[in-house]
Amino acid sequence: MKNKINTSKAGKRGQHPVKKAGHEDLFGIHPVTEALRANIRSFHSLCLSDPENSRFGEIIRLAALRGLNPTGCTPAELTAMVPGAVHQGVVLKASPFVFRDMGSFSDTIHPPLVVVADGVEDPGNLGAIARTALCLGASGLVIPKDRSAGPTPAAIKASAGALEHLPLLQVVNISRFLEEAKEEGFWVAGLDAEGTPLHQARLDGPMVLVVGGEDRGVRPLVRRHCDIMVAIPQSGPVGSLNASVAAALAIYEIRRNHF
């Protein structure tokens, strides 16, 4: 199908979601709620600080649908499960995150928009980018296998659970992925402070938006595979925007042009 990218080379992945052995401890009300709602993982146990508290009502309802009975745990027990995390009184033990292939990227929203996070290493930024991408109708998010934040419980918490719904593809070679995208008719735009002002750029049709890492921006090799570099006009003494904020502005502008 047009505008679906063959990732057999770019990601070295098959045609089915990629599952790993083991488990992860998800924490926080929104991440746990959305993991249960998405129902992509398998679930092992659910611990709540107060199963009678009404704020856990939706979690308990969804857990029942998944065959889970919540267990009451003390705050100290929950903290021991996820040291240093703001767990909000809930920890869900689940199978590891499920990566997707490009066939999982929705083509029901036209034109499609795929966001590539090129070396975004902060889990908070990755989560925020995923949250914006999902809310604004992006088809999916792509990250490199190395030198990148991954879909850890902390990133999922930062995404408010969006990473449980948004298809996430992990590839070995971002440049190769972009070339395959272009072969399928996608126009590739990279974010760069010296690029064409965003409001003057071509942003129609199937798009791939490349967001660079916090310190380096879009890497030179990846930049060479972009059709255009675009910039968000700025003023004031601060030289650049946070990666997730820049991504949010660019995703919104692309979607505004699409519709």
Topology record:
Elements: E1 24-27, H1 29-38, E2 43-48, H2 57-65, E3 71-72, H3 75-81, E4 90-94, E5 113-118, H4 123-135, E6 140-144, H5 153-158, E7 168-171, H6 174-183, E8 187-197, E9 207-212, H7 220-223, E10 228-231, H8 243-258
Parallel strand pairs: 2-3, 5-6, 5-9, 6-7, 8-9, 8-10
Antiparallel strand pairs: 1-4, 2-4
Question: Helical content, roughly?
Answer: 25-40%
Question: Into how many domains do the coordinates divide?
Answer: 2
Shape: elongated
Number of helices: 8
First-to-last CA distance? 22 Å
CATH secondary-structure class of the largest domain: Alpha Beta
Structural classification: alpha/beta
What is the topology, as strand order, of the major beta sheet?
7-6-5-9-8-10
CATH architecture of the largest domain: 3-Layer(aba) Sandwich
Question: What's the CATH H-level superfamily name of the largest domain?
Answer: SPOUT methyltransferase, trefoil knot domain
Rg, nearest Å:
19 Å
Order of helices and strands: EHEHEHEEHEHEHEEHEH
* Unreliable stretches: 7-19
Mean pLDDT: 89
| CATH overall fold name of the largest domain | Alpha/beta knot
Question: What is the strand content?
Answer: 15-25%
The major β-sheet equals:
6 strands, parallel
- Total beta strand runs: 10
